[in-house]
Amino acid sequence: MSASHRTHIYCREMRMKLEQEHENVLRGEDGEAMALAMKTLVAYGEAFGAKRLVPIKSAHLTGSFGISPFSAYYQILGRLADEGAKFKVPTTLNPRPGRDLNIINRLIFGRQKRLESCYSALGITPNYSCVCYFNANVPALGDRIAWAESSAVQYANSALGARTNRNSILIDVCGAVTGLTPEFGYLLDENRRGRVLVRIKIDRMDPPALGYIIGKTVVDRVPVIEHYPFSREELKNMGGAMAASGGVALFHVEGVTPEAPDMKTVFDGSPKETITITQADLDAMRSKNTEKIRHVIFGCPQMTADEAAALAERFAGKKTALPVWFCMIPDEMKQFEQTGLFRKAREAGVQVYDHCPLASLPVRKKSHTVLTNSGKLYYYLENTEYGATDDCLRACGVL
To answer: N or C: which end of the chain has fewer CB within 10 A?
Structure first.
């Protein structure tokens, strides 16, 4: 393709101001695929009123399932790799889909090896976890990043104080190969202020249930929860549910998350709205018909070794009445496998995996009802019931 033809394709009247090096990429000087990636980012930014592209510190990709019909996606990745493109910033990736779990999954995810080969050529960090933010990809306060995966986005924004929008599949790849993202939304100070005050009147805290209710209520506004000493795992599980049931990409907890040392700081004036969530609200989410449960799943977002160990103690010396899965961060699973509690969990009948539970159960009988303590999995997986952790343990027959 001639330089003049590339210019005709990739240069157009733009409202966004670009640096000269970005203009050069847009004209095709780094290859056609990179020009398309830059064009996509520019169009994305202009659609949301961004005035410029800004450099990022890291990326996280959501397209980790090698589903056969996604041929166009693999072609784009392959073109980038064939032209010698590399991720410009550290880039992590969502979980594998459990391709080898059964023959149906092997058919559905028949392009998994092709997908992973493309990512490897581009320079992926092969963490294979939605919980990249605990070890493989940990941004600092104020870092601009370009992440996809709603549960990762909310943790980075909320618990770490990094700055990312809730990017989609392919937009995340464009950010990773260019090292850039449009400056709009949650990258700007004014959009990070609290909008809804959440008061809690709760005797038995259940973070995933609380997150689920908040997400459904506030949708995509920024909630501020009055002080409660959530652990990092509780923030993970609450935020994952919030991002699933709503479109929440940023929340604050008074005195816990870095941008909310107090209510005066996090709100621009008075809250626009105040809601109260009670113990009765949390209890109303819990399944009332556990007799129909055929499978219990823990770990969505994936579990840490500490979470798995705490649960494994509840299974020690007992036998599960139903199939039970622990779905874990791969590196954390390796740590857990070296402990005596792993052996006790396995002896009790627990299966321990490092894949995504949502993707690994795409086809099952309608009578195969899942019980989970994950608000995220409860929202996304059809024929699923929600239970607090003790509800799930009772269904397993160990409590």
So the answer is: N
Neighbours of 125 (CB within 10 A): 18
The pTM for the full model equals: 0.94
3-state SS of the chain?
A: CCHHHHHHHHCCCCCCECCHHHHHHHCCCCCHHHHHHHHHHHHHHHHCCCCEEEECCCEEECCCCCCCCCHHHHHHHHHHHHCCCCCCCCEEECCCCCHHHCHHHHHHCCCHHHHHHHHHHHCCCCCCCCCHHHCCCCCCCCCECEECCHHHHHHHHHCCCCECCCCCCCHHHHHHHHCEEECCHHHCHHHCCECEEEEEECCCCCHHHHHHHHHHHHCCCCEEECCCCCCHHHHHHHHHHHHHHCCCCCCEECCCCCCCCCHHHHECCCCCEEEEEEHHHHHHHCCCCHHHEEEEEEEEEEECHHHHHHHHHHHCCCCCCCCEEEEECHHHHHHHHCCHHHHHHHHHCEEEECCCHHHHCCCCCCCCEEEECCHHHHHHCCCEEECCHHHHHHHHCCC
How far, in Å, are 303, 308, 328, 331, 364 from residue 350 at the CA level?
Answer: 14, 11, 13, 19, 20
Calculate ∠ Cα 77-79-125, nearest 5°.
35
130-154: per-residue pLDDT in tens?
Answer: 999 999 999 999 999 999 999 999 9
- Region of 28 (left: φ > 0; alpha: ψ -120 to 50; beta: rest) is left
Domains of the chain: 50-187 (3.30.499.10), 193-284 (3.40.1060.10), 286-396 (3.30.499.10)
